[in-house]
Amino acid sequence: MAEDEHAELGPDRSLLLVDDDAPFVTRLARAMEKRGFAPITAESVAAGKAIVQQSAPAYAVIDLRLEDGNGLDVVEALREKRPDARIVVLTGYGAIATAVAAVKMGATDYLSKPADANDITAALLSTGEALPPPPENPMSADRVRWEHIQRVYEMCDRNVSETARRLNMHRRTLQRILAKRSPR
């Protein structure tokens, strides 16, 4: 890659990658290095926060669900240390509620897994002025409904009766929906 292609990165190219999927984080680190970043990897919330305390990176890609906790804790720690950091949150669950929470906590963007290095680079370097193109495969209406039901179910601490009451739905209907796999 020519040097001018890295110009939009700026002088600080430090990138923190936090994901508990070791093969994925290793591949992503290699791919991001080829794109001009200087990646540091962590496989847990604790390791990610330790790196942030040591030297807060300019960029970060953080998985939402990690074995030892929530990736939003790393987002919060990085925002405190370095308010100008560009942070992308990855989620394997595509949950709208958690994505909104991530953006409210200071993430620049969020992407559903599997996200490739090109998508991640575009999200890290986007200025937010131009809207991104619409997704190639947007969620179906059934999937959006299912996501909403899941969010309310989680907010009610997985209490089926309370969730059914809040959604104005019969409890048995809700149980049938929850028992099924998520729609595509």
TrEMBL record:
Gene3D superfamilies xref list: 3.40.50.2300, Homeodomain-like
Organism expressing this protein natively: Frigidibacter mobilis
Record's function text: Member of the two-component regulatory system RegB/RegA. Involved in transactivating anaerobic expression of the photosynthetic apparatus. It is a transcriptional regulator that is responsible for activating expression of the puf, puh, and puc operons in response to a decrease in oxygen tension.
Keyword line: Activator, DNA-binding, Phosphoprotein, Transcription, Transcription regulation, Two-component regulatory system
Gene Ontology BP terms: phosphorelay signal transduction system
Phosphoprotein among keywords: yes
Name the record gives this protein: Photosynthetic apparatus regulatory protein RegA
SUPFAM superfamilies: CheY-like
Record domain Response regulatory: where: 14-128
Alphabetized SMART domains for the sequence: REC
GO molecular-function term, one example from the UniProt record: DNA binding
UniProt keyword Transmembrane, yes or no: no
